[in-house]
Amino acid sequence: SVVQVRQISTQPPNMWKAVVTAAAAFALLLCRSNTLDNGLARTPPMGWLAWERFRCNVDCVDDPYNCISERLFMQMADRLAEDGWKELGYEYINIDDCWMSMDRDEEGKLYANKTRFPNGIKHLADYVHSKGLKLGIYLDFGTHTCGGYPGSIKYLQKDAETIADWGVDMLKMDGCYANVSDMSWGYPDMEMYMNKTGRPILFSCSWPAYAGGIKVNYTVLGKYCNMWRNYDDIQDSWDSVTHIIDWFGDNQNILGPAAGPGHWNDPDMLIVGDYSLSYEESKAQMAMWAILAAPLFMSNDLRSISEEARSILMNKDVIKINQDSLGMPGYRMIKEHGIEVWTRIIENKEFPSYAVAFLNRRDDGMPYKYSLTLDKLGFTYAMGYEVAEIFTGQHYGHYDFHRVLTLHINPSGVVMIYAYPSE
Fold this sequence. Notes:
Layout (H helix, E strand, L loop, with lengths): L12 H21 L12 E4 L1 H4 L15 H13 L2 H4 L3 E3 L25 H11 L3 E7 L15 H11 L3 E5 L5 H18 L4 E4 L1 H4 L7 H4 L5 E3 L8 H13 L1 H7 L5 E3 L12 H13 L4 E3 L8 H7 L2 H7 L8 E6 L2 E8 L6 E8 L7 E5 L12 E5 L5 E5 L5 E5 L4 E8 L2
Parallel strand pairs: 1-2, 1-8, 2-3, 3-4, 4-5, 5-6, 6-7
Antiparallel strand pairs: 9-10, 10-11, 11-16, 12-15, 13-14, 13-16
Helix pairs in contact: 3-5, 6-7, 12-13, 12-14
């Protein structure tokens, strides 16, 4: 809207100029502070991302099956589209680092490595779109990407326009080779330039991870980024998964309120289906990412994934919890005897149901017997709740605040329950 101001004739011209200048600056600030209007990520985004599993493997001579190339991403798009992943919500195919050439073209534009991506990114985007999927790509705010490829700090507008012209649907912007102090203007500028292209591009920011995780203003961050990495890169190990869970639990009072529809904390990729996690640990990561309302980006080989891993990643009930429209992340409510209990409000804020993860951090060789009453978790409906286990489908029955719920939780495993109000 336009506010019309009537000038008073007795006001000195220089004072009027100052008022107009201040008003214009304030209006610009208001416009800028509401930049993120792309309407994306109303629930946590889902898809597949190359980095953890395929890294910066550019050797297409000796390892053509696994190198970062057009072929790899087309094959993964085929798998998402044809093997039932897309129907469950896994819709993004995301390129990470090492896709570029080592220089820009004569117009200063980025372009893909011509050997590994002979048809260019636009062709790949068209292929991904033909499968009913979306394409994500990687840039770095600094002078170079983490892998040493061209950075974007002097080319933000040009790079935003380039990826929009290619038909890219999501951008992950890393923060290697950059000053953290520049990120407070750089990431907002990039989002502004993407918005100006008119193409909706989901924006994943690495700004908090480089700024110490909790040393950013998350209210400001949520105005520019649809999701953000807060913490260290995940590695292919249970220790890495638990370190991330610990960090989110220890900082939940800052991180929890920051997340919601359109703007999400990102604890990094799902490594279910890779080399290190056991079946119990795989279930635990999937359950915890659902409780955290985390983006679900698998980083695995969908061409050879096991049926066991597939069953975990395709669990419709866990995905439903992750994608709950309230968008309220869960919190660690109890930490005792090597057991953690995490609770997430779902479905209705005023009369809520709950998803609860009982995570066993013990390694003493047998399932741990754990008991409690539901009021210990902050449940409020005195008439009680119907309780069922998510992974097994077992129905435990009706529990009021006097009936003790007893569970047996496998080492490094999880029991995940769904509880809804019932008389």
